[in-house]
Write a structure and sequence with these properties.
There is one protein chain. Among the domains are: 110 residues, no CATH class; 121 residues, no CATH class. It is built from 14 helices and two strands. Strands 1-2 form a two-stranded parallel ribbon. The protein is flat, with a radius of gyration of 26 Å. The mean pLDDT is 78.
């Protein structure tokens, strides 16, 4: 097992303390120390960020080329083809990228980041193809949601077929974008629909994504690895919507919201806090780091939001930020302590198995 320098120091200190406390013998401590290797450099992280930087540079390069007036004229002369042809061209290009990604994934399954980078380029060209399809069909902005739904459908099928969790992730993001565009004020739904404003609709959307995804991928065992990203996106939609509702409530008119009193919005803060506590309880009971992490993160977001709402006006700014700094320092120290305890716990369980 490879660990970082900081993790290695913690492990060495824990093992030495066990030897001094006669928990383990000296030969056992040497055996434990040989079970991990301290890496001098985190090459995994370098590989991950290098591929993302490479993709960013490709996007910047293409954008810079398109922004050049001289090249724009060349592109106009070279690409006077109808939008339908452009759509098909980018669709074929996307297919080539997906094919290369699948073949590389089968040949080099351990090269995760480079494989996912190829899939990401395929996702981008697929989006361009769908955009040209919209122009070819002359849908206009009024039917923009149809294109988002089409993107969600295509990404979903491709992601489940390959399989690729990155492509599936973009399917869920496109689905959320479609839901937002479809239920927006401009689409005819209005500020309210069935008594629900915009954020409250996303609360239900996030819950539906969590429960439907959990049922589907628990039944579909060959694609069970898709459950985790599905739940993550569903929880993200749910908690962000609840956070917005804790600030604005179920109001669709800004003028009515400005006249509302803080006490009239307080029950949404209670609901937001209850959801966070429920997520923490689920995470602790079922040892689920995702729900526990979401619950802890958003319960502190809830507390700090209420802190700003109720104490920003009446507290001196120096005192306000001093209290905020102390609270963050306390949170960081507790988080560090929990992290070290979990590391020692894992090492203890490993020591027990070796005895």
């Amino acid at each position: 097992m490879q660990v970082s320098k900081k993790e290695g120091r913690v492990l060495d200190r824990a093992i030495n303390n066990w030897v001094e406390s006669n928990v383990i013998s000296e030969p056992e401590s040497q055996k434990l120390k040989r079970s991990y290797e301290v890496t001098s450099f985190d090459w995994k992280r370098v590989a991950k960020y290098s591929f993302w930087l490479a993709i960013s540079c490709i996007v910047i390069s293409i954008s810079s080329a398109i922004a050049d007036k001289w090249l724009i004229e060349i592109f106009k002369n070279l690409f006077k083809a109808p939008d339908s042809i452009k759509c098909m061209s980018f669709a074929v290009f996307s297919g080539v990228l997906y094919f290369l990604g699948i073949r590389r994934k089968n040949q080099y399954p351990d090269k995760v980041y480079s494989n996912e980078a190829i899939f990401f380029l395929g996702i981008a060209t697929t989006a361009v193809s769908i955009a040209f399809l919209g122009k070819a069909m002359d849908t206009g902005s009024g039917h923009f949601s149809i294109l988002l739904l089409l993107a969600a459908f295509i990404y979903g099928l491709l992601g489940l077929w390959f399989p690729s969790k990155l492509v599936w992730l973009f399917s869920l993001l496109s689905l959320g974008s479609w839901f937002g565009a479809e239920t927006s004020y401009a689409s005819g739904w209005g500020a309210y629909y069935l008594g629900m404003n915009y954020p409250l609709r996303f609360v239900l959307f996030g819950l539906a994504l969590i429960f439907c995804g959990s049922y589907a991928f628990n039944q579909w065992q060959s694609r069970s690895e898709f459950l985790r990203p599905t739940r993550a996106i569903g929880l993200l939609y749910l908690f962000i919507a609840l956070w917005i509702m804790s600030i604005f409530g179920n109001y669709g008119d800004p003028e009515i919201w400005e006249r509302a009193k803080q006490i009239e919005l307080f029950h949404w803060s209670i609901l937001f806090g209850a959801a966070s506590v429920g997520a923490i309880y689920h995470g602790v009971k079922y040892d689920d780091g995702m729900t526990r992490g979401f619950g802890l993160t958003f319960i502190f977001i809830n507390l700090y939001t209420r802190f700003f709402e109720y104490f920003w006006e009446g507290t001196h700014k120096a005192i306000f930020f001093a209290l905020l700094a102390l609270s963050f320092w306390y949170l960081g120290s507790k988080a560090e302590k929990i992290w070290q305890l979990s590391l020692v716990k894992n090492l203890t369980s490993q020591s027990t198995r070796t005895q």
